[in-house]
Write a structure and sequence with these properties.
Blueprint lengths: L1 H7 L31 H15 L6 H15 L14 E4 L5 E4 L21 H6 L3 H5 L2 H10 L3 H8 L2 H13 L12 H16 L6 H4 L16 E2 L10 H6 L3 E2 L2 H20 L3
Parallel strand pairs: 3-4
Antiparallel strand pairs: 1-2
Helix pairs in contact: 6-9, 7-9, 8-12, 9-12
This protein binds iron/sulfur cluster (SF4) (2 copies).
The site of one iron/sulfur cluster has 14 residues, from helix 5 and helix 7.
Amino acid sequence: MSSWQDIDDQVPGGIYLCQVNENVSCGACCGLYNLADSSRETLNRILARRTMLFKTVPRDADAIEAFGRQMEAEVNGNQPFPEFHHCPYLGLVGAEQSRVGCLLHPLADGNNGADFRGLSFYGGLACQAYFCPSCSRSPKLLKDLIRRAATDWYHYGLIITEVDLLCALYDRLRSDGAAGGPALNGGEKCLEAGRNLLELKITWPFQKNPVTDRVNYFFKDNLYAKPAVHYADAAVSGSRHEEIFKNLVTTFDTADQLQQAETMIDNLIDEIAFSTI
Ligand code: SF4
Ligand code: SF4
């Protein structure tokens, strides 16, 4: 924790979320998941290839932009949200290249401290200064839980940016009588609750198109709002967990599925409550 404390004090919301440790980081605001196939295997393959190719790119504007155009051409097409830019300069960073990050960042391999982010779609200022809504709005307790429990960038970036989902879960935690305390106890059960929260979007069985339904557009223009929960059986509708289900992009075909989903969320909320003091 101590390694985070200095940075935590300097960011909106008091918990630094972007680059957590050697294996955990987020690239969601750079459009990481907005590809026709955003499975872990595909993303890892794309990022690893880019990282390898970028090593041989001369660090001048023309060469870097040509590289960006080539990488963009390789992934363009059938993106779930066409207006959500997927940055071709996302790659793998760190000593072991074990987490997602920006190939144009001054600390990235081969840049010798030079900042090339000004060549990107959003421009250098936006890349340096942007903090997504989760940084300031998501409940501190859940951000802390997710950051402690995360072991892998892919799962982490999917859930840490789900500001409305995390707020809805926290609301239920407070109002369901689960009576979670204000801080985490940090024990093994706490990490287990965090891991289950991290898995929630990946394992949620009520999404019709899991690979695309897990992409989250969280920018303020609300261009791609989450759809209402779809109840295929007209006799079934409404739940105390409606907001959570909506943010998980949910379709229920039967009343049994709804009941199963409610139990899953109840159990998760209980686990989180037991992780607090
Ligand atoms: S989406 Fe949020 S947490 Fe992720 S890198 Fe961007 S600002 Fe950081
Ligand atoms: S250039 Fe900007 S948008 Fe692209 S990966 Fe880097 S920080 Fe993200």
